[in-house]
Amino acid sequence: MVKLILLGLLAGALFSSTFILNEFMSDAGGHWFWSASLRYIFMWLIITALIVFQHGFGRVKALLAIFIAHWRFWCVTGGIGFGVFYTGICFAADHVAGWVVAATFMFTVVTSLLVLLAFGQRFDKKFIIYALLVFLGVVLVNVSEGLRASEVQLAAASMTDMLIFGALPALIAAFSYPIGNQLVWQVSFNSRKHTAELRRMRDPAAHDDVAELETTAKPAAQSKKPPSQLALLIAKIPALETDLLQDAFNKVWLMTLGSIPYWLVLGLIIRPDMPSTSQVFNTLLVAILAGVGATSIFLFAREQAQTSSEVAGVDSTQASEVIFALIGGILLLGNTVPSLMGLIGIGLIMLGLVLFAKDG
């Protein structure tokens, strides 16, 4: 268990590089658009190389065929889960410290519950208490930083600007990320169920596979009311006859490719100045450390967990991202230590995340 926790903390440290390097690039004058878009271009190239190395060019051709057959779904999923998500993170980094962005983004644990609820899932009411802890912590972190900004700049509008241009984009990111993840989970679930049903048609003995999938994340009691617009949209999520979506790298590859149109359109709208060599290098570093390294280590630690408590322990290490981002900002960027209110907010966020992981 100690080894898994250490791996989770290592992943948290690498994940925190996103917030530190984004703040650094912002301070250096680099446009947030390049910090966001170049990361996913680099990620797609790196993951493509890894897939080819492991499975050959045939795997890439098969994934490309899946993408072309359902390009609308992957563009929507990648555009929301990666595009809108990371746009919010990088835009917020232009206006507040990296640790504040990290702390605010931790609200994604709460928004994940709301997304699951929208997709027909149910959860224990005690999670509402945990969600309120995280929410209160996020509020304290942002108010404390807003008050400090107002004192430094001697302007009453500083807090309002920070909340609108810093906290709000990070909160939008906190919603977008679980929406994208849930869409990919749903298409993966639909595909497993579809494949199992086909297997049952060929072999009646495979009935148990279908029954097990039907009980996975089963919605609450069915209602006789007409389906909502959201339910109709969820019903349109495709079911693919493939086992490729059971590999996390394959799903990330498809989502990343699906985000490219979003970045192209956003770039045409914004038309930013070209990035500096330093910004390109730092964005590549983020792609390697956070996009590939941290994700791989975190998924490896989860896969090595033997019990639900071990999985929960690994998940709880995500709270360390705030601490690493805070320490990195102080040591590398000269950021000031948070006020007592900010430290209390960080404590509440971490407590909420640990409780979520413990009882999740």
UniProtKB/TrEMBL annotation:
Presence of the UniProt keyword Transmembrane helix in the record: yes
Pfam families, A to Z: EmrE (PF13536)
Residue ranges crossing the lipid bilayer per the database entry: 32-53, 62-86, 98-120, 127-143, 163-184, 252-270, 282-301, 313-333
Top-level taxon of origin: Bacteria
Record's keyword annotation contains Cell wall biogenesis/degradation: no
Keywords: Membrane, Transmembrane, Transmembrane helix
Protein name: Multidrug resistance efflux transporter family protein
Record organism: Psychrobacter saeujeotis
